[in-house]
Design a protein that fits this description.
single chain, 523 residues, alpha/beta, 16 strands
Length: 523
Amino acid sequence: MTTPAGSGAGFGSVSWWGLSPALDLQAESPPVDPDSQTDAEHETPQLDVLLLGSVDGRHLLRTLACAKLWSPRRFRFYVLESNLEAVARHMLIFSLVVEDPEKMGLQERSETFLEVWGNALLRPPVAAFVRAQANHLAQLVPEPDRLAKQLPWISLGALKFHERDALEAVFRFWASEEKGPAAFPMSRLWDSRLRHYLGSRYDARRGVSDWDLHMKLHDRGARVIHIREFRRWRDTGVAFELRDSSAYHVPNRTLASGRLLNHRGERVAARGYWGDIATGPFVAFGIEADDESLLRTSNGQPIKNAGEITQHNVTELFRALTAWERPRASEVDPMEVPGEEDGTRERAAAGPEFFTVHFLPLHSSQTLHHKTCYKEQFQLLYVACGMVHLLSPELGACVAPGGHLIVELARYLVDLRQEQLQAFTARVRELAQAAGFAPQPGARPSETFARFYKSRNSAPDCTNLVEESRPPTPEVLAPPPGLLAPASGVLVPASGVLVPSHEATNPPSEDLTQPLQGGTPPP
């Protein structure tokens, strides 16, 4: 899709946050089957979930936070992303989740998460935390034994060696202080993306923001997003302003990603911002709440905005996660917890006993079914709207009979018109049917998610249906066109210049030239 005066590719080609509210995956999974889902060693029902493009870990966090509402169950999450920077952000988020509460309190952890996750610019203390954590993770990635000991809930064993090397390089870039903001000029990158996206409408960007918010996001159910926070995010990339605006000036390097682009006839490694500049990170935690009082209205207007609701929801998530991280003394045998005798308690490594996050190789969705450990292994498959084109019979073969499929729809993509959203939904149904799924009977109607199940006698022929399940043409919107077109922005190539990303073939303008030592290997 193109707008009258711009690219129309506001979603970008890299996802940093989800475009749907966080789900409790236990509520979406089929009922527990003790015969097939009980772990022999622990005698506890086990839930295996495969997630394609979950990007920000919101579904995992909500599932873990809600675990105490259900019968005891072990979780094995298998995460497949389109780039290694998303894998690195997953690891950073989970390292923040398990941070010792004695070192970082609940409010500080919640605010740090919001800034790292959704802001283009950070406060200096948050940037220092990112550098410290990134340096620590960079040391753990090449040493599997140390990683297994210190972060037992994270598994990188399935990644290829060159992917682990690239993942380490991502963390090294985050941890580097060399050249400071000049190494990743986020404000300039953001403005360049915005200019290319809006075209001649750039000077009227406030009016464009008002239109997109009131005529699109509000009409599609996100009425709690306030115009001031939406404008601020569109202009600066700062979605959650928890302190004075002048405090946010350090570029958020976790939003950088690398690409190989053509420049003057040569392929160069470039680093830039290729993410969303149209919708924002407000949808994931900011438009729904378990506390209905947050969604009340007064004189037809919401009493809380999306930023306030997001902060409340994230704080409650971290509060619940802290509860299972550090159990009460009455719940734990003192003989099993080091440090109990002197009245102190060291954090128990809850990962292996409760959940494990396995990161799968990039571009492996069509080959997983060749391994017996993945064939008919998963009780739940989640596919983000940017990964719908990967839904195929090969992927369906990894889901156990009776398993469920949840597909994120493109409801909150502001660049898509209503007829395009309907075409996208129809295409999702076609791909799900070709992969061996059928609509869930009795599933509640939703414009945000499409829900399917795999019949117990369903066994699609991967060889016969593979042609039918290939990605549709761009006109059919699978994936949305914003995910196929290169996102605009200023690039920071390894060669040491900044070039505009449009076509990536024009020579760099003199005022955008910046030196750069070393580049992040593109995924």
